[in-house]
Write the structure tokens for this entry.
Amino acid sequence: MPMNNIVLLSDSYKASHYKQYPPGTEYVYSYFESRGCVVPEWKEVTFFGLQYFLKEYLVGEVVSQAKIDEAAELYEHHFGAEFAVPGATNPTAFNRAGWEHILAEHGGKLPVSIKAVPEGMTVPNKSVLMTVVNTDPKAYWLTNYLETLLVQVWYPMTVCTQSREQKKSIIKYWELTGCDPSGKPPSGVCFSLHDFGFRGVSSVESAMSGGCAHLVNFIGTDTIAAMHCAKKYYGAGPGSFFECPAFSIPASEHSTITSWGKEHELDAMRNMLTQYPDGLVACVSDSFDIWNA
């Protein structure tokens, strides 16, 4: 489950920044951009993933007294000098009064305004992708407090951008080999890069946001979490273009083939066609000898 205490969803040092702005500061206006890519030919970025973070962490009454108290206790010891002086704490490093102001004056809703380019839009590198500004002058410190969470959009944005660049390469070679990239599914480019990324990422949340980013460019996936993200946070599914946000086909894995034994590999493949007489199937062929298979 995602951590749900917004007061703690930041780098430690940001908790101390409320004391560091010039006296009289009322508004902090920040922006997010892609500074470029190590691949010179990739001069654009496809923005995606912000809506998930907004809906999951920032919308509604996300601040409570219990969350403030939890954060205050943690920071009191975290910024203390107990490593040098037993029992030493620092109760003023954390901005308890600032968070309690948000709770009292805004009912626990965050007084910030966030603007962004439409998700799925491709823009040149070094373009502003998102801006953040506080709407309460007493919460000037909040804008960059949220940076740590908001810049995590770099992950789905990177997946989406790379997926698009790979799609461009696929289209190029489809055309060079005389194929029609716009063919009707399951033909065509839309099924040419299938996502099995669930097992290769750091968390279920990464699979959700990164896998959903892939679906901006393709409609084939085996990452169920990506479809959950697309339906819950982006309105995909019934009532949209497709009833389902992504598609797959029955497929074998090595265990379902090798369990038949080497001498019965053909029977395993015949079973695939018997069990799934209609539509497409995928069958691994390198369990024993790919040339014999």
